[in-house]
Amino acid sequence: MNTIKRFMKFYKPHLLLFTLDMLAAFIVAAADLFYPQITSNVINHYVPQGNLRLMLIWCGVLLGIYIIKAGLTYFMQYYGHVVGVRIQADIRKNMFQHLQRLPFSFFDENKTGTIMSRIVNDLMDISELAHHGPEDLFLSLIMLIGSFILLCRINVPLTLIIFSIVPFIVLFAVLMRNRMTNAFNQTRVELAEVNANVENAIAGIRVSRSYTCRDNEEAKFDRFNQRFVVARNKAYKVMGEFGGAMGLFTDILYLIVLVGAGMFYFYGKINIGDFVAYLLYINSFLNPIRRLIGFFEQYQNGMTGFKRYEELMDQAEESEKEHALEPQRLNGEIEFHDVSFGYDAKTEDHPEKHMVISNLSLHIQPGHTVALVGPSGGGKTTLCHLIPRFYEVDSGCITIDNIDITDMSRMALRKNIGLVQQEVFLFTGTIRENIAYGRLDATEDEIIEAAKKANIHEYIMTLDKGYDTYVGERGVKLSGGQKQRISIARVFLKNPSILILDEATSALDNATEMMIQQSLEKLSKGRTSIVVAHRLSTVKSADEIIVLNEEGIAERGTHEQLIAKGGIYAGLYQYQFRQVSAG
Q1: Residue 344 in 3-state DSSP?
Q2: What is the 3-state secondary structure (H, E, C) of 156-198?
Q3: Strand order in the sheet with 334-343
Q4: Are 125 and 300 in contact (CB under 8 A)?
Q5: What H or E segment, with its residue span, contains residue 527?
Q6: 310-318: which pairs have CB atoms within 8 A and are 24 or more residues apart?
Q7: Are 391 and 385 within 8 A, CB to CB?
Q8: pLDDT for 579
Q9: The pLDDT value given to residue 109
Q10: Residue 317 and residue 477: Cα distance in Å, rounded?
Q11: In angstroms, rounded to a whole number, what is the distance separating the alpha carbons of residues 491 and 525?
Q12: 33, 127, 208, 543: which one has the fewest Cβ atoms less than 10 Å from its Cβ?
């Protein structure tokens, strides 16, 4: 019931159009109820009495009713669907806004294709329910109640006999509801898996082609696709059982009317006109029952989709303190106070958290460059993700300029942080749009200046469309170095006080790395910079180098100090130096 209440709230902004649609449905239902009564009068009175004038008048009235009905049906079909589409758009907007506020852990645990399926496929059925559901239900109730009243005027006992079947039809529909809900929900889950598989396969098409794994991808798709077919078959089986049984009910009902009305006519309880009117009214009575059967299928489809919408909307958003601070420009003094963090477990065998950082304390002076090095799994990237609050610490706290970052609004905090990662993400669009993402209100001159600082302007000007060149999906039309420089231009435009460089050059060749490194050095100047790097040659000039491993901070100091110490860092540096010399 609570689900239905939440669903009904979406009608409020469109109440006027929805009310007009229901009014049109009411008039159409009333028009359908007129036809049998007029037919009965023509057969019983006007024809036997030879009253051609009244017969033609009432036939003209019927023609007028049909014309009005046609116009109202057009209104219902057009504007009723408009209401459904608008409600669908409102729900999709809510979902997208909510997704923008969900913590990163949600996206760690949910596939992109599955989320897409909820936003696209589920909402199509919700739209159909939003339009046809109330309309079909309202029409059915009007027709059933109207038919009952008018049939009682003809013959009460026969009407009661016929309507005594209705409770059995309703009871059967209620008993089938849970089976249909479960079956349709499973098809949603499997369809979402198919979408997730397709999205993953398309995103990795270059990898699968390079490893000649086309057959493997097709087999994997077939597995998911077949699971969807099996789930859909089960849903259709339940739906077939429901439709077949409901069809039998309606056919038996029609047979009862035919036999009952015939017997009543045979014994002189009704006349031939009433007999015909009875058959016509029963047809009007059967139509809403058939409409209710269709409504049940729509309801199961739509409400299953809406429940999946509720599941997503019930996911907790990133928390924000009331009256959170809104600092405009931070100096960039960062301090970790006994910070611990772990990722949630994903298996039953290991229910406890997988701790990545334990009791870490670290102080970074404003304007200094601090490099984080060490073996994989030491928590370097995780540490970088904790500063902009992509994840929340389990214990301890992080402060910037002596302010606990949880006391700031996420928006204010993240405006002061620029992030350049190894895997650059460019949005589908132009080069200009991707650079301008750093500050959406930037002028053309500011965008060009940022590109120049990132050493990408000259290359852009060699392109036919310059800054209006489309980069393709995820920047597929650009090289790794070009994408990286666009991402650096984006940060130049943002002009943050804190810079995080997470393996920003590790995927590039040496020549490109040197070019990018010059841009990064310009970008780091005057900012608090945290650099994660495996190539130690890129962090030699850092104010402080911190070696992280699974136990925490293993070593810290300048390059010269750590080399002289002869510890982990010195060993890593000498190993890399030998590799370079050998190369």
Answers
A1: coil
A2: HHHHHHHHCCHHHHHHHHHHHHHHHHHHHHHHHHHHHHHHHHH
A3: 354-364, 334-343, 395-400, 403-404
A4: no
A5: none
A6: 310/3, 310/6, 312/95, 312/98, 312/99, 312/115, 312/118, 313/94, 313/95, 313/98, 315/98, 315/102, 315/106, 316/102, 316/103, 317/98, 317/101, 317/102, 317/103, 318/101, 318/102, 318/103, 318/389, 318/410
A7: yes
A8: 54
A9: 82
A10: 35
A11: 13
A12: 543
Return d(Cα 173, Cα 245) in angstroms, integer: 10
pLDDT < 50 positions in the chain = 581, 583
- State the pLDDT at residue 209: 65
User: What pLDDT is recorded for position 387?
Assistant: 93
Cβ atoms of 573 and 567 within 8 Å: the answer is: no
Contact (CB, 8 A) for 373 and 546: yes
pTM beyond 0.85: the answer is no
CA distances from 155 to 45, 103, 559, 562 (A): 18, 66, 102, 103
Answer whether 377's CB lies under 8 Å from 385's CB: no
Q: Kindly give, in sequence order, each residue whose CB lies less than 8 Å from that of residue 569, ignoring residues fewer than 6 positions away.
A: 373, 536, 545, 547, 555, 562, 563
CA 52, chain centre distance (Å): 64
Residues in the chain: 583
443: CB partners within 8 A, 6+ apart: none
Radius of gyration, alpha carbons of the chain: 35
For residue 418, what are its two tokens? Answer: 């620029």
Collect all residues with Cβ–Cβ distance below 8 Å to 243 and sequence separation of at least 6. 293
Query: What integer pLDDT is reported at residue 198 of this predicted model?
Result: 76
Strand partners, 446: none
Predicted local distance difference test score (pLDDT) of residue 312: 87
SS3 assignment, position 30: helix
> Is 435 in contact with 489 (CB distance < 8 Å)?
yes
State CA 347 to chain mean position distance.
26
- pLDDT at position 402 is 93
C-alpha to C-alpha distance for 65 and 299, rounded to whole angstroms: 31
Tokens of 280: 């016509």
Instruction: Report the pLDDT value the prediction gives residue 510, as an integer from 0 to 100.
Output: 67
Which residues face 528 on adjacent strands? 498
Check residue 206 and give its pLDDT. 58
pLDDT of amino acid 137: 82
Nearest to 122 by CA among 309, 297, 249: 309
Q: What is the DSSP letter of 14?
A: G
> Residue 337: what pLDDT?
94
Q: Sign of dihedral through CA atoms 222, 225, 229, 231?
A: positive
